[in-house]
């Protein structure tokens, strides 16, 4: 599946740099995804490239104006399955399920706010999703947009070398992942758990699942309370 990811931003070079490395670069080169960094200043109403203005109400800071954002969105080719994503503190908490939903789209547009944000009329007019990545404030939405894009791209068929690794991800079934180890077997007095060296596949599976359950219950009780636990899970917890 080919998905188009578009970023409306005042820093298109930043987006270009992100797609030069790792899994996302390979996804682009193999035609599994495409991206476009759209320079918002190209749609400014003046030669200076002005895209922001002081907010009504006398509060400090600057807001991105409606006009340039509207023009940038209207310049996009028609696409019936398009998602237009904004980022705000009050938005839906981004999750693995949201990433999976977006990965099923053909076209995702990220509108990257700056300064104090974006004129609220743009949310009302265009947003299919408004997301939040946490209770903190950043200087702009480019980083959140790239994080969401990363989570989406790795879910596309053919992107990861081993598709089974997706099934082992944290949050793939509502639980955190289990601890993992590699060589050397001993490191400064710390050893790999014996069960992982036993060759007993059932014992390894049981250990890994038990670790998932314990870690989630300890560190994310909110996830644990809503996870769909099986009878086997309950037996392992005992």
What features would you describe in this structure?
- This protein has 238 residues and is an alpha/beta fold.
- It has ten helices and nine strands.
- The chain has helices at residues 12-18, 22-29, 66-74, 96-103, 120-126, 142-153, 164-167, 201-219, 221-226, 231-237, and strands at residues 3-9, 33-39, 52-53, 63-64, 82-93, 107-111, 129-132, 186-187, 190-191.
- The strands form three sheets. Strands 2-1-6-5-7 form a five-stranded parallel β-sheet, sandwiched between helices. The chain has a two-stranded antiparallel sheet with strand order 3-4.
- Helix 4 links the parallel strand 5 (82-93) and strand 6.
- Helix 4 (96-103) packs across helix 6.
- The two termini are 43 Å apart.
- The model has no long low-confidence stretch (mean pLDDT 93).
Spatial shape: elongated
Low-confidence stretches: none
- Give a count of the beta strands, DSSP E runs of length 2 or more: 9
For the CA atoms, what is the radius of gyration?
22 Å
Q: Helical content, roughly? A: 25-40%
- Report the structural category: alpha/beta
Spatial gap, N to C terminus: 43 Å
| Strand residues, percent | 15-25%
Oligomer type: single chain
List keywords for this structure.
238 residues, alpha/beta, two-stranded antiparallel sheet, 10 helices
């Amino acid at each position: 599946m080919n998905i188009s990811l578009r970023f409306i931003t005042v820093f298109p070079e930043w987006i270009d740099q992100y797609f030069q490395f790792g899994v996302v670069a390979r996804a682009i080169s193999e035609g599994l995804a495409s991206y476009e960094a759209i320079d918002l200043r190209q749609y400014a109403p003046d030669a200076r490239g002005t895209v922001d203005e002081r907010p009504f109400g006398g509060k400090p800071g600057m807001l991105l104006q409606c006009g340039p954002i509207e023009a940038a969105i209207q310049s996009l080719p028609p696409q019936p399955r398009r998602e237009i994503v904004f980022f705000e503190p009050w938005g839906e908490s981004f999750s693995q399920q949201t990433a999976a939903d977006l990965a099923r789209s053909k076209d995702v547009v990220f509108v990257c706010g700056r300064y104090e944000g974006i004129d609220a009329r743009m949310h009302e007019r265009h947003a299919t999703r408004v997301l939040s990545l946490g209770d903190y404030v950043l200087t702009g939405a480019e980083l959140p947009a790239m994080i969401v894009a990363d989570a989406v791209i790795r879910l596309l068929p053919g992107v990861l070398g081993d598709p089974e690794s997706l099934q082992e991800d944290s949050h793939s079934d509502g639980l955190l992942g289990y601890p993992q180890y590699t060589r050397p077997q001993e490191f400064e007095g710390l050893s790999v758990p014996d069960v992982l060296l036993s060759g007993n596949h059932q014992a390894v599976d049981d250990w890994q699942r038990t670790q998932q359950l314990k870690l989630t219950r300890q560190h994310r009780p909110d996830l644990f309370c809503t996870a769909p636990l099986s009878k086997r899970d309950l037996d392992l917890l005992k």
